[in-house]
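User: Structure please.
Assistant: Input sequence and predicted structure:
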Amino acid sequence: MNLTQAIQVMLPPFALCVLLVGMLSYLGIHVIKREIIFVDLALAQIAALGALIGFLLGIALHTQASYWFSMALTAIAAAVFTLTRTRETRVPQEAVIGLVYAIAAAAAIILIDKAPHGAQHIKDLLTGSILWVQWTTVGLVAAVYAAVGLFHLLFCRQFLLISEDADSARAQGLNVRLWDFLFYLSFGFVITVSVGSAGVLLVFVFLVAPAVMAVLVTDRLPAQILFGWIVGVVVTVAGLTVSLLADLSSGPLVIAAYAVALIVVSAIVHVIRARDRARALKRTLAVAAAFAACFALLVLIGRAVGARSSGHAHGHDHHQVDLAAAPDRRGETEGDHDRAPHPIPPGDQGQSNFTAQFDAERDPSIRADIVCDVLRADPEIGAALALRYLASDPPLFFAQTIVDELDAILPQPSGLDVEQPFTAPVNQQAAQRVRAEFNLR
């Protein structure tokens, strides 16, 4: 992937990260003031559960119908959280929030068994696929965030008052329960449109990590919002860049980047606010060195134990593998061992092999490479895979790559428009022409 292609791939997730960090870091400050840290996880899991239920009922993921289905469940959860916040209670609200999260997660696990590729759906719900987000999703998120942001701007005094001091809000005549419900409901809208791209875990980190760092640094709300936004964008973009360059999962890597940022910011604030900064710096460095040494020691022990276990396993199984499982290498030269296997010829066996490779891969970039290779090797099988790939709503860049490759082997351009959904009439007609050209069913 050259620099231009990398920029094209990175621009949509970068724009989405700016939106996510800006809105979620602001809401995170409210969450910290209310001391309901895990409400985001609960609402995110409820939204994911709603999308999953809709999927099992035939509603495609990431569609407007799916979002509204998720929002309906999120609104119910918002009502539950509103009713469980009372002046005097023996059960903390955080306990109710934790139970809601656990119940929603358990329900999702039960239902996911009924969905095709259930394990992949669980991974997508948890970590999302922010690196492959499209501009249509960015536009949807921007529209929802703009509406929620305007709503909070108009009623910022009420929301801040009930978050900081609910008793004072009641004394001033505010209906705390009503404003609580409006807060959770608007929060639910934000979470619902965020989970589909960023995943449950990453949305939680976006909400809490920038807010925690901002609260550590300053007590002024405008400065907290600005600091959380700037630091969040920098950390997120750094994580996404490393993810793209190293070909690693984007969500978990961004979370790891936030972990590093939290440690660094906490250490800097501790040193700056200490009475004896030199002594505090020495202690901080000593603690960091101790943790690094412990981690290194664990890695060394793990490698030693793993090597010993592996050696025992090879010692017991060596003869059996050589006699029963090793392929017959007679007649091969040394250079033959390093050759790539010959491609399976076209036909039923080749189609099964190509389809299995395509289905086993989740990365849209690698799937696009597979489709392009198959189109060159066997246009008929490749055309079928190309239509399947385009129907999965891949990132715009990869979809255009497939269409260009498909048009190159057709007598005339297919007419597929990647700017429109695959279900659009123009694309359905173009797909029908492709099927007719290759006699596909």
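The chain has 18 helices and no strands.
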